[in-house]
Design a protein that fits this description.
Elements (H helix, E strand, L loop, with lengths): L2 H17 L2 E9 L5 E4 L5 E2 L5 H15 L5 H12 L3 H11 L2 H11 L16 E2 L1 H13 L6 H12 L15 H4 L6 E11 L2 E10 L5 E10 L8 E7 L20 E3 L18 E8 L12 H17 L7
Helix pairs in contact: 1-9, 2-5, 3-4
């Protein structure tokens, strides 16, 4: 594809995403020609489940470099973690085998200059960029990261066998898989979580085409929104409290937020306070799709964000394939 056409499509895809309340990062590498294109590709993005690539890579490299075989249980966990994006499998491997040291190992071997270990020790809060993820995949394929051929083939096999539905019931066909139906070879690792600064995070990353010719990374940060009305809950608030509910989630820099207040409703009539009771009233709060407590598999805002991801890929490659 000529660079002018690709640049035009990148601009149109980014504009379409903005119209849907989404900020998009895109990076594409043609491994055959060396052609590279990106949009906001150096903008930091949290990895969510894409960090599972680093967990698997570090463990398979450790196995080959130390000549210490992984247990069959660990191999099964790696398979589930990559094919079905199984969080329980990732948690077990992370806690058992070194946690953030696993990410540090991959950063060093692949020379990922814009990737950092999670600030809080949780794998899903690993930071990276679309450009760095393209560099990781490219290094995985050509062996620059030091992973032996057998380990690379294992990882590619798991990514090619990625399930349509994740272990928690979430639809993980968004982006590359649904956007490129004309490609016979697709190996992907998807990621998603809510909420960071009131936004959904989705990533669709992987390898496309015969011989894994293309490396494609798409990441979105989309405002959580419910056009047909926000789900809400009613909470009780003490009248004399100075820390009334805020208009944004507490801990907005953390991966998930359960609920956040919106407009305060008229006080609900209550019984006359006694000498021991504290005056109080009630407010309606917006309930965010906290992915630490819900799968969000039927969440309307999640579906909207997934559609944005797929639409971006379709704008980039309207023929349903990259070639």
């Amino acid at each position: 594809m000529d660079q002018r056409t690709l640049d035009d499509r990148l601009a149109r895809a980014s504009a379409a995403a903005r119209d849907r309340g989404s900020e998009i990062s895109i990076a594409l590498l043609d491994r055959r020609t060396g052609q590279y294109a990106g949009s906001a590709d150096t903008t930091p993005v949290t990895t969510a489940s894409v960090a599972k690539l680093f967990i698997a890579d570090a463990l398979l490299y450790r196995e080959s470099s130390t000549k210490t075989p992984l247990s069959q249980d660990d191999r099964d966990l790696i398979e589930h973690m990559l094919e079905s994006s199984d969080d329980d499998a990732a948690n077990e491997l992370w806690n058992e085998h070194g946690a953030s040291d696993l990410v540090a190992d991959v950063i060093g071997r692949y020379r990922l200059t814009a990737t950092s270990e999670p600030y809080d020790g949780n794998w899903w809060n690993t930071e990276t960029t679309a450009a760095d993820l393209v560099g990781y995949y490219s290094g995985l394929l050509d062996g620059r990261g030091g992973l032996e051929r057998g380990g690379r083939q294992d990882m590619l096999g798991y990514l090619e066998a990625a399930k349509a539905t994740a272990a928690d019931g979430y639809d993980q066909r968004f982006g590359i898989p649904d956007g490129l139906p004309g490609e016979s070879t697709v190996a992907v690792k998807q990621g998603w979580m809510c909420c960071i600064a009131n936004q959904w995070l989705h990533l669709s990353t992987g390898l496309v085409g015969a011989g894994n010719r293309y490396v494609l990374v798409v990441a979105s940060r989309e405002d959580v929104d419910y056009p047909d009305g926000w789900p809400t809950v009613t909470v009780e608030v003490d009248d004399d409290r100075s820390d009334e509910p805020r208009d944004e989630p507490a801990g907005a820099d953390e991966p998930t937020v359960a609920s956040t207040p919106t407009e305060v409703t008229s006080p609900v009539p209550t019984a006359t306070p006694t000498t021991t009771a504290r005056p109080h009233h009630y407010v309606q709060v917006r309930q965010y799709p906290d992915t630490t407590v819900t799968t969000a598999s039927d969440d309307a805002s999640a579906a909207h964000a997934r559609e944005t991801m797929t639409d971006v890929v379709r704008i980039l490659f309207p023929e349903g394939r990259i070639d």
